[in-house]
Design a protein that fits this description.
2 copies of one chain form a homodimer. By secondary structure, chain A is α+β, with helices and mostly antiparallel strands. Chain A is built from 13 helices and 16 strands. An 8-stranded mixed beta sheet of chain A has the order 7-6-5-8-3-2-9-10. In chain A, strands 11, 12, 13, 14, 15 and 16 form a 6-stranded mixed beta sheet that branches. In chain A, helix 2 runs antiparallel to helix 4, helix 7 crosses helix 8 and helix 12 packs antiparallel against helix 13. The longest helix of chain A is centred in the C-terminal third of the chain and has 53 residues. The first copy, chain A, starts with 5 loop residues before the first strand and ends in a 7-residue tail after the last helix. At the A-B interface, strand 1, helix 1, strand 4, helix 4 and helix 6 of A face strand 1, helix 1, strand 4, helix 4 and helix 6 of B. Strand 4 of chain A pairs antiparallel with strand 1 of chain B.
Chain lengths: 506, 506
Amino acid sequence: MAQTFQEISPSDFFYRNRDIAGFTNPARAIYSAIRELVENSLDAAENIGVAPDIYIRLKFLGEAGREAQVYQLRVQDNGSGIPARHIPSAFGQVLFGSKYKLKQARGTFGLGGTMAILYGQITTHQPALVISSTGSSRIYMYRLMIDIQRNKPLILDRKILLNKEQWRGTIVEFSLEGDYFRAMSKIVEYLKQTALVNPYANLTFVDPRGRLYKFTRVTTRMPTPPKETLPHPYGVDVEIFQRLIQVTPTRNMIDFLRTHFHRVGETTARKFLEFSKIPPSKNPRKLTHQEIVHLVRMMKRFKDFLPPDASCLSPLGKDLLKAGILKELEPEFVAVCQRRPSTYAGHPFIVEVAIAYGGKIPRKGDFTIYRFANRIPLLYDEASDVSVKVIRSMNWRRYKVTPDMPIAILIHICSTKVPYKTVGKEFIADRPEVRREVLNGIREAARHLQRFLTKREHVNRERKRLSIFAKYLPKIAQFSTQLAGKSQPPNVEILLRSVRKFELEN
Amino acid sequence: MAQTFQEISPSDFFYRNRDIAGFTNPARAIYSAIRELVENSLDAAENIGVAPDIYIRLKFLGEAGREAQVYQLRVQDNGSGIPARHIPSAFGQVLFGSKYKLKQARGTFGLGGTMAILYGQITTHQPALVISSTGSSRIYMYRLMIDIQRNKPLILDRKILLNKEQWRGTIVEFSLEGDYFRAMSKIVEYLKQTALVNPYANLTFVDPRGRLYKFTRVTTRMPTPPKETLPHPYGVDVEIFQRLIQVTPTRNMIDFLRTHFHRVGETTARKFLEFSKIPPSKNPRKLTHQEIVHLVRMMKRFKDFLPPDASCLSPLGKDLLKAGILKELEPEFVAVCQRRPSTYAGHPFIVEVAIAYGGKIPRKGDFTIYRFANRIPLLYDEASDVSVKVIRSMNWRRYKVTPDMPIAILIHICSTKVPYKTVGKEFIADRPEVRREVLNGIREAARHLQRFLTKREHVNRERKRLSIFAKYLPKIAQFSTQLAGKSQPPNVEILLRSVRKFELEN
C-alpha cells in the first residue's frame, strides 16, 4: 500500500521508453541508429563548411533470435570532429550536446547518437568505439559504455594516436540487434532522399550482403552555413525572459531588448516600451514577476516587430527543389513555392512546397507525399504529420485535382527548432503557425497546378477541335474543288491555322 | 566555428520540447493538463482501493492574447495523498515519481503532473498550490514553482494545517494559458469515455462558463488493484539482467532466476540452465559479460517458460466492455473478445476488443474507433496507433464487412507498461507482439460479427421467401377451394410453417 518515490536519470528514462526515441522494434531500431549517426555526421561537416563525405557500413555478426540479428554499424565522416574531453559525454550521456542553440541543425535533442549506442549496449552488451580528431596533431580513441542509471559514460579504454595525415572527422562503431531485411527498403529510401536534398554530400553505404550503395555529390557548392540567432519577441515565454534577465549585462530596458532579441533595434525597443508602459530606463533585473508576465504578453500583441530574418535558416531554394523533383520523378509539370519566413514560439521557420504532376508519379488513388525537415527526410508515421493533415483537409476539387491523378507533393520545413512530436523525429506537431504556413504554401503551389491543369484541358479541347477540322477540311476542300470544276484545291493549312485559337506548345 | 557543449536538465529538455509531452498548442495544452491530473487522481484512489471522487474546475481568469486565455485549473481527489516530504518533488521535478514499477498504472512517465505545472508556469508565471494529506493528523500545503534549469522544486510557501476531519487526498491548483473553447469537445469526450471504462468513479467537471458535467458511478465494485510484478524472462534485456545482478542477495543461479523473474520456479530454472549450459551453482555475480549476453539471448529462445500471469493486470473484462458499448451505442449486435495475457519486452499485457454493429453507430464510410490503454481513453493522433494500422491493413471483405456499414471497434490494451510512442500518451507504438495480439483480437471479434452478418443475410432472405409464400398461398388456397367446389379453404398457416427453414428470432 505504501508508495515508493524514486528519481530516475534521463538516460534511464529513455532506456525505459525507447519507443518515444524511435527504437520500437528491431527493424525500426536499425533504421533509427543509422539515421541518427548520419544526421550527426552531416551536421558536423556542414558546421565547418566542408562538403560531407559519409561512409556507412553494416556488417552481419550473427543470429540473435527469431526476429533479430546482430550487426556491427560503423559510420565515418569528415566533419568537425569532437574535442577530446567531450567525446565520452557526447556519446555516453543523454541530454548532452552541442546543439541546444537557436540554430538550424538536423539533430536537436542531444540524444540521437547516445540513444543508438544505448540501444546497442542493451541488446549486445558490447562497448562502443569512438575515434575522433578535430584535425589537430592527435587522434583520440575511446572504448565506452553508458552507465544508464547514473547517465554517465563509462570509459573502458582510451588511446591517443599521432595524426600524421591531419585527418579530421569522427568514426563511431558499435554492435546492435536489428532486423536489416525488414528495414532495408526504408534505409535505402532514407539515403536516397537525403542525397536528394543534400546534393553536396557523398554518401556510401555497404550493406550486410556487401552491396554498395553510392550517392555521389552533384555539386560542391555548399549552402551558407546556418547561423545562431536570438529569440524573436513573438515567441518568447516567461522562462526565456527570466533566463535572459539572469545573465544580461545590460542595465536598462532599451539595451536589454536590443541585445537579447531578434530584430529589435533602438526605435522598435522604444516603441514597444511605450506600448507596454514600462519606463525605458528601468533596470531589467528590477522587473517584478507581474511586469515580466505583462511584457511577455505585450510582446505577442505588439504589431511593429520586424518579421524574423531568414539569414539564420538554410532552406533548399526553388532551384534545388525543382531539380530534385525533376530528376527523381520526371514529371510533366512542377510548381515550387518558398514561403517567407515566419515564426512559432520564437523560432523562425520557412516552409517550401513543390507539387508535381505526371511523369513517373504513380496513380494510386492518393497523393505521393515527401516530407523533409532541416534537410532530412521523414519516412515514418506520415498520417500524423501536420503537412499530411493539411493535405487531407483541403478541398482539392477547387484546384481541379482528383485523387486518381498522378500527383506528388514535397514539403520542406526548416527552422532553428523543428517542432517534432516524437524524439524519434518521425513527424511534425500541429502547431497553428506551422499549419498556416504549410497550408498557404500548398495552396500557392496548387494554384499553379490548377492553371496548368486548366490550360491542359483547354489544349486538349483545342487539339480535339483542330483534329476535327484537320479531318474534314481537306475533304470539304476537295469536294468544293470538284464542285467548282477547279483542279487545284485551296491550301487547307492556311485555313487550319486561321481557326487555331492559340499556339500549342506541346 | 567552435562548438560549445552543454548539458541540460530533464526539466529543461521537456520545456524545450513540450510538443513531445502533449503541450503543442493552447487547446491541446489545456486538454493535456486536465488529463494528466485526472489520471494521477484515478491512480491515487485505485492504489488504496478507494472508489475515486474527482472534482475538476476550470475558471476563466482573463484574456492572454489572440489565441489563448488564462485559466485556473483545480483538480481534487480522495486518493492516497502524497507523503509531505515528497510533495515538492512530485510536482516540481521531472522524472520523479512513484510509478517506475512493473505495475499497471495510468501514468508511467513520472512527468505528467509536473509537465502541466511547468506549462502553467511558463505561460502565467504563477506558483502552483498543492494541498495533500495521507489521512494523518496533518494537511500539508505547498506553494511552489519549478527551477527548470536545475530540475528542482522551488518552495515559496509551506503551511501545516490540522486535519480534524481526517481528510485524505490531493488538491492541485494552478493557472495556465489555454484555449478552452477549441478543447472543450475533446475534454468532455475524454471525461465521458473515462467514466465509461471506470464505472466506479465519480467525475465532476465545472467548466469556465459554470456548466456542470457530472459522471456518477454506476457501481462501487472496484476492480482488483493491480499488483507489482517481476520481469518476465522473454522480455529481459542485458541492462535489466545486470541491474538484478547488482542488487541480488542470491548466491546461485537457481535462486537468482526464482527470485527475480516472473513465473520461474525451481524446475523451470533448472531446465533453462541446462538449455543454456550454465552451471546451476554458479554465483550470479561471477557471470561474465559474454555469459550475461548469452543468458539473455537464451531466455528469448527457451520455449518452456510459463506465459505471464495476468493477476498483475486489471483488464476491463467482457461484461464491462459489453455494458459500456451497449449503453453508449445501443447496437444491434456486439461481440467482445479478451485475449490471453501476452508479453512484450518483459511486460505482460492483455488486449480486449469489442466490435459493435448498428444502433447509434454512424455510417460514415469508415469505422468508428475507440482506443483505451490502462483504462484511459486515447483521443489524439489516431492514425498512427498500432490498432488503427492493424484495422486498416485487414481484409474486411473476408468478414462480409464493407466500409459503409455502421461498425464501431473498441480496443483496450492494459499492461504493466503501455508502449506509448509519445510522452503525451496519444498513441501506441507498433511493437510486433502487441500488433499480433491486437490483430488476433480483432479477427476473433470479427468472426463473430461475420456469423451475425451471415445469419442476418439468411434471415432476410428467408423473410423475403416467406413473405412471397404468405402473399400467394392464401390466393392459391382460395382459388383451389373454388376450383374443387369446396367452401372451406385449407389452413394456410400450417402450410406456411411447413416451408419455413428455421425460426426467425427477431
